[in-house]
Design a protein that fits this description.
single chain; 115 residues; mainly beta; seven-stranded mixed β-sheet; 0% helix
Length: 115
Amino acid sequence: QVQLVESGGGLVQPGGSLRLSCSASGFTFSSLIMSWYRQAPGKERELVARISTQSTMANYADSVKGRFTISRDNAKATVDLQMNSLKPEDTAVYYCSAGAGGRYWGQGTQVTVSS
């Protein structure tokens, strides 16, 4: 049974930091590209960051470049998203996804950036 479980969301003030983590099970983690997406109220889901199977390549949405960092640990089957200098417009539900095109999805974790 495939499971992707996100954690680490919460309420943070503008300029603050959060670290999201996604724990995976039920598939060969090291063989799949891993991604973080987000969906804000009234908006479509968007790709935030993506990392290759061996961490050799990472891609980011222009809106988060220089502020967010994606990383993975294949031994632990986890993928993290370090979010710094958070802005109110980063408020969204953040989803972990496995596989190109989003083969598997987590349930999401809420991130709220507000003073």
